[in-house]
Amino acid sequence: MSSAAKPAAATASPSVRRLDVEAVRRDFPILDKPLPNGQRLVYLDNAATTQKPRQVIAKIVECYENYTANVHRGIHALGDRVTTELEAAREKVREFIGAREVEEIIFTSGTTASVNLVANAWGRKFLKPGDEVLINEMEHHSNFVPWQQIAIERGATLRFIPLTADGRLDLTALDDVLTDRTKLAAVTGMSNVLGTINPIRELAARAKAKGALIFVDGAQSVPHGPVNVCDPAIDFLAFSEHKLYGPTGIGVLYGRRAVLEAMGPFHCGGNMIRRVFKDHTDFADLPAKFEAGTIPIVQAIGLGAALDYVNSIGWEAISAHEHALTRQAFEQMSAIPGVRIVGPSLEHRGSIISFTVEGIHPHDMAELLDRRGIAVRAGHHCTMPLHDLLKLTATTRASFALYNTPAEVDALCEGIQYARKVFRRG
Fold it and tell me: How far is residue 247's CA from residue 243's CA, in Å, rounded to a whole number?
């Protein structure tokens, strides 16, 4: 996952096609609609979910209006069409992340479901008392709690890679926590709070040297840069399409074939069986073994349209644009008195900036920004251990996407100054 290690921090060469942000914005209907308070929307909550372009919305409507049916079951024309569309979307995912085989692509309801699938289906079979799972304190609860719970159940131990003062993984301590007992390392590609871009290549290599598997939570990293699961070779990658301009309710789990085949199923039911007997069941081949019941069909087809949309713009243009916005925000916010930005410097950061302002609670900051039409996130962002480490109860988070503009960064910074004046900090 070498190129995914630096999603928004890549700098553009002079030959890179510049992103036409105004043309992009015309693809997103919501950006042209006033808010109930009459304000123009400045949407900076992209790490939570992104807005959806017309192309994705149209594909979803097309499916519901023209070929609604269940997949892999019907012999009729609608069933054949919807199955063809679904499997075309699966192939687009395979190509998008560089997987070798389309059977390695499992559709789930999102990153959380993907992590739980592996923690339970792999963990229950392969974790033994005394084994270790390696994680760290910047992880989203979705890539923390499932490993914590399966470790408790199986008598295994969680080991933690410590963080540096600026919010990066302290690889100088890796030899102390990555041991011969480590069975799996779980790590986010990019922190949803700190914006930290983690060194997946080095972590994968060192985990493999110990005979451990590596699970990458790509919920934040995949939407911001190209991915190749074979370079470096990783065992699992999970991401949610709703953070990548696609529908909610659909996610992807990539698993290396040999590992997936060694695992038992997580959910049992229709579609994931080959033959059911009264005393046992033979399970279906990949990917059906992990897709019990009716999966999110229309959402998966919409996922394919979202990948087409991103590919039509190009990662170099997207990454360069997002990096420029992040740099502008980082520099302007750093100059505002009382602002504390958490996380590393720009060269180690993706398109997320979480911050506090002296004397203003993050929830109050978010509410005052909302009055001006600026949508940000406030709270612990499902990272309580990280906020405990930072000695903070909450932060305010601004996160950028391909449709954001320099003027919106200015609006954010003006909104922070406005909040300081309201609280008499300016």
Answer: 9
- Give Cα separations from 176 to 182, 189, 198, 210 (angstroms): 11, 22, 18, 12
Pick the closest to residue 93 from 285, 315, 300 (CA basis): 300
State phi, psi for 264 to the nearest 5 degrees: -85, 170
Q: Which residue has the tokens 């709690």?
A: 145
- β-pairing, 42-43 vs 374-375, is parallel
Indicate the residue type of 419.
Answer: A
User: Burial, 254: exposed, middle or buried (Cβ in 10 Å; 0-12, 13-18, 19+)?
Assistant: buried
Domains annotated for the chain, with CATH where assigned, are 3-52+314-422 (3.90.1150.10), 57-311 (3.40.640.10)
The side-by-side arrangement of strands in the sheet containing 251-255 is 105-108, 251-255, 236-240, 213-217, 182-188, 132-136, 157-161
How many other C-beta atoms lie within 10 A of the C-beta of residue 76?
9
Residue given tokens 């900090």 in the structure block: 425
Instruction: State pLDDT tens for residues 29-77.
Output: 999 999 999 999 999 999 999 999 999 999 999 999 999 999 997 789 9
What does each C-alpha distance from 85 to 60, 75, 175, 307 come to in angstroms?
A: 11, 15, 47, 14
Active site residues: 382
Residues 246 and 225: beta-carbon distance below 8 Å: no
* 17 Cβ contact partners less than 8 Å away, ≥ 6 residues apart: 314, 316, 317
pLDDT tens for each residue of 190-230: 999 999 999 999 999 999 999 999 999 999 999 999 999 99
One-letter amino acid at 185 equals A
Does 146 sit behind a cis peptide bond, omega within 30 degrees of 0 on the bond before it?
A: no
